[in-house]
Amino acid sequence: MASKRETSTAVTDTAEDLVKWLGSFGQSKSGGVTRPLYSEPWMEAQHALQKKMELSGLETYYDSVGNLFGRLEGTNPDSNCILTGSHIDTVVNGGIYDGVYGIVASYSAVQKLRKQFGHPRKTIEIVSLCEEEGSRFPITFWGSGNITGNYSLQDAVGKNDHNGVSLLEAMKAAGFDPETYQNPKREDIECFLECHIEQGIVLEKTATSIGVVSHIAGQRRYTIKLSGESNHAGTTPMHFRKDAMVLAAQFITYLTDKAEQADSDLVATTGKLTASPNVSNVIAGEVTFTLDVRHYKKRMLDQFCREVLDHFHQKADHFGFALSYHTWLEADPVQMDQDLQAQMAAAVREENLSYQSMFSGAGHDAQMFGSFCPSSLLFVPSKNGISHSPKEFTSSQFLEQGIQVLTRMLYQLAY
Amino acid sequence: MASKRETSTAVTDTAEDLVKWLGSFGQSKSGGVTRPLYSEPWMEAQHALQKKMELSGLETYYDSVGNLFGRLEGTNPDSNCILTGSHIDTVVNGGIYDGVYGIVASYSAVQKLRKQFGHPRKTIEIVSLCEEEGSRFPITFWGSGNITGNYSLQDAVGKNDHNGVSLLEAMKAAGFDPETYQNPKREDIECFLECHIEQGIVLEKTATSIGVVSHIAGQRRYTIKLSGESNHAGTTPMHFRKDAMVLAAQFITYLTDKAEQADSDLVATTGKLTASPNVSNVIAGEVTFTLDVRHYKKRMLDQFCREVLDHFHQKADHFGFALSYHTWLEADPVQMDQDLQAQMAAAVREENLSYQSMFSGAGHDAQMFGSFCPSSLLFVPSKNGISHSPKEFTSSQFLEQGIQVLTRMLYQLAY
């Protein structure tokens, strides 16, 4: 590994080399990667990335929550900053492209421009953002949320990971002591550009190189706690039971059927379920499960979630269960900047590539920036549409094509 | 706690005192008890029980798997042994009466007899058996299975707990080194008597003091592994998904509906479910869940399980999921000895108590002994039928009534 990471600092790295290099931090046996926010592999990856940006001539720094910046100073002192990048935190056993590609694309584009044209008029900063996934702490976009002023330190209070470690403890352990917190909100961002793998199957199905994102779907995430009665699995007749596993199973089936009927662009998922006591010969007295619901129209999203939660409450009351839920993400659909969309489409044509306008079902940091500054999101194809999985893959060709388009846009915006 | 355990060695302990005393080993915050086989609290409880039996004049010893015996020698050297007892291992956060009452009843009955009548003709042994629940290792009745020759050391191979600790490692850590294993199978057992809380609601509903168990329901336990495809919760359209959580939910609903229609005495439970990666924004690629099915007629039990598993396989194949299952318990229904049932009924009448004949939906060590030697099982009422829960409760009066009947039976059998 060491030698691999040595050689990776060569200046001739392709985008694929760089993605694989970052994928070596937190690599799982299955070939995937587990790199939760503030974990050791996450810190190693941030530090390695910082070193790499410094070696390539960028000034680097962290803000108070651990967002890493690599700055190429503009010659015009009065200019605002063009921000570009993505995130390196991952889901558990996720793929190596998600998030990382956006950072690699920004880094590669800036390298090309610096070598060919030197310093830009306007400052360009590459950013590696914190907790885009929300897979360690229930606060997605923690990094971009701080930069855009949607979050500040108080929003971290009471947020714990699956092991009961608090977000504040984890920040401190990673070297970002909440005691020294200075609000990372920026006032000097002119626009934000992000490249990302599609994580869906649309571009592949339509044999298109580039997706120009028009808007990002809104998301609602809930944690639902259902309490029945734990009892002996052998001596409790079926009709005397309050089995939380059984009612949770009915809820998941209801949710899925309703989502399939609602709208072909709506998705609803229970990805996480925890039963208690979770023993084979004991009726589950309590089940906690998550809901993740997404659509690009706010009205449709709100109505669907309201109807689902109403149904859950009615059934729980009817069968004498206690039900409570916690809403921990309410992200409304976000439009990407229309001028930047047009500029991206033009850049794609100038590179003689194919593109299509599309919406994103996945959340991205660009949606935090979308309501803060003109923002733009570019997709490259994902093989079989698979992501958040070790099977995640995008060919070297597509990776480089996305970088060509980003490079052209950054040139037009900053030089 | 220490002082509590001190005073508990007084000879005037009531059954309730003794149950609460043993309940103090592995006590959980919620007032329940978690005392898995070979764990520290389990060993502490066994050692405390051993000390108590020695103080009361019994010879004590362990066999190679950790079954603890307290022996009151018979005056007739040619006599076989009357074995009586139960278990002290518990489910996670279970109640304090399950298993423990049977040991307390045997201990109390033997104390009364020894004080009043001295040594019996036939040897009486009190036994505290290992892993009746199967809640740490997937091998229920490990202790009674060794005594009756249903299990030996080779059956322990490959059995791991939830943390991946093997049964053999755990035995060794608890002081029962597999290297020194000597087969605990007994040739000198004349009969086995067990007292237990009902763990059901029948005796309470019928206001009856004693249940004379006619037979113990058979059980089948399976672990089922369902593999679909892990993918992004936001970008994978509903109709492209292979969501293992969704299909598992349908299976649980199917199982429950079918059990409710099958027979009022049949019970089927999924108590344990584990999803992977178990993250809110990732479609579950894999779900593993348990089946626990019980009925007192072998044919009904076999047919039900066959039909359920066939259905699971058909649906999994139809939707393109991989399904595998492991059968880790196949216990057929077991008859209790009819002469001992008649003798117990007579003993109840002599004590001027009420009784009824009933079957047991729960598994008990008596079912291992049932096909090995004449065996008998006595129930006392459980409040609200609740067990395997901190809410488990049986009144002091019922505890003592069960002991009256056991004392009378042991007198008739051994003196």
Automatic annotation (TrEMBL), chains A, B:
CDD domains, alphabetized: M20_bAS (cd03884)
Single annotated GO MF = allantoate deiminase activity
Question: What EC class does the entry list?
Answer: hydrolase
The keyword Hydrolase appears for this protein: yes
In terms of superkingdom, the source organism counts as Bacteria
Q: What is its EC number?
A: 3.5.3.9
Q: Which InterPro entries match?
A: Amidase_Cbmase, Bact_exopeptidase_dim_dom, Peptidase_M20, Peptidase_M20_dimer
SUPFAM superfamilies in the cross-refs: Bacterial exopeptidase dimerisation domain (SSF55031), Zn-dependent exopeptidases (SSF53187)
Q: Which residues form the Peptidase M20 dimerisation domain?
A: 218-316
Alphabetized, the UniProt keywords read:
Hydrolase
NCBIfam families tied to this protein: hydantase, PRK09290.1-1, PRK09290.1-5
Please give the family membership noted in the entry: Belongs to the peptidase M20 family.
Protein name according to UniProt: Allantoate deiminase
Query: Native species of this protein?
Result: Halobacillus salinarum
| Gene name of the encoded protein | allC
